[in-house]
Design brief:
By secondary structure, this protein is an alpha/beta fold. It has helices spanning about 10-20, 25-35, 40, 100-110, 130-145, 160-175, 200-205, 215-225, 255-270, 295-310; strands spanning about 55-60, 65-70, 80-85, 115, 150-160, 185-190, 245-250, 275-280.
Amino acid sequence: MTEHSIRPDVQAYLDMLAAAPRPPMSDGMIAMIRQAPADFLASQDLPVGELGEIRDVLMPGPAGDIPLRLFDVKAEREASSVVVFFHGGGFVAGSIGSHAAMAAEISRGLDLPVVSVEYRLAPEHKWPAGPSDAEAATRWIAENGAAFGREFTGLVLCGDSAGGNLTAVTSMALRDQPATLPVMLQFAIYPTVGRSTEFPSYEAFADGFGLSRVDMNYFEGAYASNKADWRGAPALHDLSGMPPAVVVTAGLDPLRDDGRAYADKLEAAGVKVKYRNFEGTIHGFASYRRHIPSARDDLSEALAMANEMLRAG
């Protein structure tokens, strides 16, 4: 399959989007999305399915309480690592609810508890509110397994898209000032971590492949990050001493080369890395599994890579 080939189920999904296009992202559009019911926001993914436990917890954050939600395939378990999950959505949208099915599948695939974090969103809360919440939540989760009825022994940081950025940023923060538990793995799913506009994939796939140039420009302006700061563009800064990483990208994603460059730079810094580009699919595939059946196997393969990395220590 060449890099511009599109899987049939991906093409069908893109055709469905083109037949009923939504307005470009804007402050008003974001407000409408946030008012939509949680089941509507999650409607492109599979159902959450059966789990051993789902538990909501509130923690004190830098600017007020941060909602957290535990997803665990097991009702009870022995001491284990915990996955701290940061949802995607361009730093302006997404929620625990919109990504509940993905969090549940990560728990099934890794056989670990997953705690999803409801970090603050732009444009109301611009950068670095999101990174501040992500770091604070990770440190709190590391110290408060009892709040979830569990004992945690290590951290697996995971996120998709904007959440992949928070995964990398939080990994860097905990590298420099460790939490009470070690970071065992960073698992970044089609992350935005550097300067995407400088890569060929940004131009090749920025229109007609689900994640548009107009929307990306809106996300960038709303979030207003400083890419000279490591919390804005972690891939542009020192990556030595980072935890082992699994990085996955999509072949038809404008962010593809950004993720690939991050994996390459991690490896060059001496970090253990597993990288996989899923050809013929688009940004967001892991949360489009209802409409893109092949994405189910993609996510399963990505989770198998993470499992292998965790077993290798």
